[in-house]
Amino acid sequence: MSDTAAQLQPHPVRNSVFLRACRNESVPHTPVWFMRQAGRSLPEYRRVREGIPMLESCMKPELVKEITLQPVRRHKVDAAILFSDIVVPLKAIGLDVDIKPGIGPVIANPIRTKEDLRQLRTLEPDDVPYISQAVTMLVEELGATPLIGFAGAPFTVASYLIEGGPSRTYERTKAMMFGEPELWSHLLERLADITATFLRIQIEAGASAIQVFDSWAGTLAPRDYRQSVMPASQTIFRSVAQYDVPRIHFGVGSGELLGPMGEAGADVVGVDWRVPLDEAARRVPPHTALQGNLDPALLFAPTHVLHQEADGVLNAAHAAGDRGHIFNLGHGVPPTVDPDVLTRLVAHVHETSTRSAT
Amino acid sequence: MSDTAAQLQPHPVRNSVFLRACRNESVPHTPVWFMRQAGRSLPEYRRVREGIPMLESCMKPELVKEITLQPVRRHKVDAAILFSDIVVPLKAIGLDVDIKPGIGPVIANPIRTKEDLRQLRTLEPDDVPYISQAVTMLVEELGATPLIGFAGAPFTVASYLIEGGPSRTYERTKAMMFGEPELWSHLLERLADITATFLRIQIEAGASAIQVFDSWAGTLAPRDYRQSVMPASQTIFRSVAQYDVPRIHFGVGSGELLGPMGEAGADVVGVDWRVPLDEAARRVPPHTALQGNLDPALLFAPTHVLHQEADGVLNAAHAAGDRGHIFNLGHGVPPTVDPDVLTRLVAHVHETSTRSAT
Asked: What is the Cα–Cα distance from B191 to B89, expressed in whole angstroms?
């Protein structure tokens, strides 16, 4: 094939249903993937993870590859997402962080003063060789299926660093945000820098989209988000803009933040189940695609209810007008879900959306 | 005073700033109270509660009176709220429920089948003599300060009954809601009946407003709330409509539900800090007053930040137009807050809103 022909012939990944939807292009059916599709809901995941602590498993490229591929094989989802954790880059620069089963990330020395910031040095590609190795292998193996790069957003990562672990009220986090704005913005800038590097490494190794998880930003009032959080997230999105890969921005309970989360530089905004997608469309900037947004609790409902509610999501996305839509849950796959339910849901969404596309 | 004169002379409680604001009438300053104002943030509360389990303390009328009055004395708030818990009426009809410190309500035999419903018999006034006793004493003592009656809404109470305790994902609750709609609606109807009785007892003993806490309804998509939850809450509001006392309806993270929570029959909708009040005004039905909505985490911020953000709430309420506004937090007072911060905040809101009212 000549160079020109190669250029005219769209790359199979670039022309995948998932990436087309991210770019608001027409699609033969709605693409589907699930947050935390690679995880404890799968017996094959539990098998390969046996005896290996979470963070360690994120640092073994062969294992990351296998775990990332499992849901693609099983469910026929339209995208893979790199199996990782938002604290992986922190661990990589030497922070004493662990993921405790049933709890989440736990930080040995929480960051609460200017001196504590010293723990956060710059991330270098050599700190995470396993990431580029895993991505390179994955892209090779995945063929036409796109791989989504993975990172946590500064606010959500900062909340763990400041609280020392998961929180329900984010009291210490907000106390710093409101009370020590200079320290706060230094912390968020450092995290933005680390995150941007973490994502660039994934993109340069072949990831063809990225998702930034600001899972807990929904705890903030819009004004506070805009003033104290959005600038750092903006830095991240800006720093990967040159690559021309779709950038997804996701949070839970972030209905009031959909506008600014889009404005931060996202091509796609992830929406949880609380805001119908047609309403979400009114809140995000023009030309922003939408991802979501089935309540994960519906995975425990009878099939006819689940599929009916999935149709409701597709209809709301349709009512949202000329935007791309990537079908997903409004949050991660619950570990106790029967994986067959997910496989059937993928097939149902594909089939239903094919019918309405033709 | 003749009967006619007594009618012309407004009752001091009826003419209180709090009740006037609930009815969208003009006020000399914005009224203030705080959810969980009677609680662990106060040393005098910790003193009188010492050695007395939570639920037991809700059943001692003298103690309920004392605890309810404490924040009125200390902070000069514009309303008292009956010290109670949403599971008190369940305990009163014989359910094996306890409130575990640091956890919350724990149900010994969760309700998951039709047979389990038998645990929920009708509530009779004789089941809760301490409630009418406490309210009667309180009203006497409070003079011109209104007392708000207290109850949990069917969804939030059902979530504890089904899960067996607090939950983050409400998986079992939603599984019943989506999968066993008949059982679900029977459960919610029974809870609505119990709650309505619980509130009527308080109103007949002298409570001059009520607040229904549907704290966790915000976990539901609006369509699911309307279909599966709103009817039962409507039953409650309808059943106390005859008394002509303002009805407040509150939830956390319920930005998408403000419309239906108002339509359920509320005169006042409580808003958490995620939705600015001028935006909330666009979502609730006309003539609905608003309550809220300072982020409780701000109580840990420096005074100038706290007061500036409180002014932001007052400004947003002003921008919301001709509606009553009751200043409150977006959720309960955190137990670790310095109570002096709350006292100063009440004074600040009174002073600032007096200036802008004149």
From this structure: 10
Task: Tell me the H-state helices in A269-338.
Answer: 277-283, 303-319
- Which one-letter amino acid corresponds to residue B58? C
Active-site residue numbers of B?
Answer: 36, 40, 49, 85, 160
A338 and B CB contact within 8 Å: no
- The single residue listed with the structure tokens 């099983």 is A74
Asked whether the beta carbons of A238 and A259 are under 8 A apart, the reply is no
pLDDT interval class at A357 (50, 70, 90): low
Q: How many CB atoms are closer than 10 A to CB B20?
A: 18
Region A75-87 average pLDDT: 98
Judge whether A49 counts as a catalytic residue: yes
Do residues A4 and A194 make contact, with C-beta atoms less than 8 angstroms apart?
no
Mean pLDDT, residues A116-133: 97
- B279 contacts chain A (CB < 8 A): yes
Asked if B104 reaches chain A (Cβ–Cβ under 8 Å), the answer is no
Quote the pTM value. 0.94
Give the pLDDT of residue B268: 98
Indicate yes or no: CB of A174 within 8 angstroms of CB of B256: no
Dist. CA B58–CA B134, nearest whole Å: 10
Helices and strands (DSSP H and E) totals, chain B: 16, 9
Mean pLDDT of A35-44: 97
ipTM: 0.92
Strand partners, B289: B268
Say if B166 is an interface residue toward chain A (CB within 8 Å): no
Q: Is A85 a catalytic residue?
A: yes
Give the chain B residue whose CA is nearest to the CA of A177. Answer: B301
pLDDT on residue A282: 97
For residues A310 and A354, give the distance between their C-alpha atoms in angstroms, rounded to a whole number. Answer: 14
Q: Which residues of A touch B227 (CB under 8 A)?
A: none
Residue in this structure with the two tokens 């094989």, named with its chain if needed: A73
